[in-house]
Sequence to fold (217 residues):
Amino acid sequence: MIRVAQWKYERERMVKEQIIPRGVEDVRVIEAMTAVPRHLFVDTSYQHQAYNDYPLPIGHGQTISQPYMVAAMTELLELKGTEKVLEIGTGSGYQTAILAFLCDRVYSIERISALTTQVRQTLKRLGLKNANLMVGDGSIGWAEYAPYDGIIVTAGAPEIPNALIAQLAEKGRLVIPVGDEFSQILNVVKKHKGRIYRQEHFGCTFVPLVGKEGWDK
Fold:
């Protein structure tokens, strides 16, 4: 059985070997990646691989993203601690926990109810109380609590959903993988004085964003 000190060492190793050398510089993101126990967001049979540099299955055809991808996408949001953030694709809840560590409030949507139930239990175990979870179609966002200072999409979209652009606050940032069902380019969308600015970053591979403004499955 791995002890608490060993898990802490594994997290620190992950950050030093995978996160920082690949260009992640935001001190707060680094602190969050060091603090949040990724092994609690995967099945016990995969816990020994939790801090390795690759995605892992979480059931229902879904995965937990590789640590570097979580850190890189989070850094692109440029969070200062006061923001309201919308997450599309709760999945394992690991990204949710990182966001909860870094912003004021997180609203996260997942289409698979069993995953949402599991994430609620894990977040409660960690004492994170600033994340609201909902089962639904993430491609159309969560209009009830809009606008959002940041929106992060952890699934690949064929195009940037208009609903998410509409729910983005002035000076807000939307981080989303856009492409086909097998590979995407990570995009950052910024809203300034009502205008939309879009910048492409690097290639990535995510499960498809399923929904009204995503892939119709």
Q: What stands out?
A: The chain has a mean pLDDT of 95. Helices lie at 4-19, 27-35, 67-77, 94-102, 113-126, 162-166. The CA atoms of residues 139 and 212 lie 6 Å apart.
